Amino acid sequence: MNRVVKVFRNHWPAWVGIALVTAGVVIALVGPKNQPWGGLLLGAGVALLGYALFRLPLWDKRALAVGGNVVLRTLAVLVILGLVNFLAVQYPYKFDLSANQRFTLAPESQKLVQTLKQPVRVIVFDQQITPPTRQLLENYRKVAGDKFSFEVIDPRSNPVKAQDFGVQGFGEVYLESGQRRERLRDQLTEANLSNGIVRLTQAKQGNVAFLQGHGERPLEPGQRGSFSQALAALQARNFNVQPLNLAETGQVPQGTNVVIVAGSQQPLLAPEARALEQFIKNGGGVLLLLDPLEAAKNDRGLNQLLAQAGVKLDGRFVVSNTEIIQGAGRGVAVTTRYAEHPITQDFGQSLALFPLAQAVDLVGEGEKNGVPLFLTGRGIWAESNTKEEPIFDPQTDREGPLPIGVAVNVGKGRLVVIGDSEFAADGLFNLQRNGDVFLNSVNWLAQNESQPLSIRSKDPTNRRLNIATPLATTITLLALIGLPGGALVAAAVVWWRRR
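Given the sequence above, the corresponding structure tokens read:
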């Protein structure tokens, strides 16, 4: 130990010089640009090394050999570090190791910007943007190439430009493409930006009508079981959405692309059902979200329409042998198996949750022209006895896997039937793949397969650990007192033994 101290004391300028040169090179290579610290440290280190070489007694054979070896090794390390940093700067590559790929554009966003027919420009009116926002915009530009660009403009430095856009304050974001311009009124996130690009570059994707008059789910926010989130999501994707009362109109209005029957509780009148049948024959799309009801009402007056399409409703409630969602009971069907279909593409092994659902089967012509979209796993069955605790009875119940939804081509038209409507209601719409199932179904029925089907926000994974108060107190005391105290005790013991 004394020898090491003596060597350092006699040759400290050389060692400090090497450390300063190393720090200066590293800061110059990887530190911020236009800052003097790298050069200053490098200059100071070279000066100390020069002093050590010419003023200190380093030139005896043994010292020269040892010193030369140290210098060569240090230089070799510096050269390697320099090459590594040079390659990193010239050929940058980033890895997204987050659980849900938060820092990578979703496949839907990538497909959207890769198929842009004309350039899109994003203009942010602010003094500066946050690093995550800049990284998001850079991700778009990297994927889209010259079809995407962005610019940050300070309204105070360029008031003429701000006035041209009608800017009212800092933070406003505008999209431009050709002669079209649109303000992004929501927060600048991937989901909002991609949907804004769709609205800017595409014509209206279609007209969607929600059937009313039979106890269907409400569209206004704040009501129980409302479809307000689903409605807003459709509007964000450039759909025109209107309520429809077939008892008044007698037929589906001209120009309508999709009719949605969301959880009707009363049967449709015969003329209404015939209007939907004719609508499908004319090339329209119908989305039936049908909760299980008592046998006499379960077909909702749509028996002939379903029979023509080759679709049959099971009518029994789907239950699970375990509680999937805490507090929701066992009446939640979970699907992880999906068909090869535009509605379920890219779902992988993700989940969709269907509370109080019924199975939907393809029969006859439906087996030729349709596909079961999603299947439950095992441990789920269709229960016929709803008055007692559900117990699987092979005589009256149906064992899973069970199909919860089907998609059928009916001549020129299309039909999607899902044995549940609550999955798309407020509170469940943004849960797992529920919203994707709804939006993708509407998009397929509107025959918009060329468009990205679903662009959803990526929420950060909640990794907070909920710890009981006594355990949290114990951990705090251990960190503040236990570990430092243990180190001090160990140091005292070592000192006592060596004194």
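The first strand starts at residue 120 and ends at 125. Try to locate this feature in the token string yourself.
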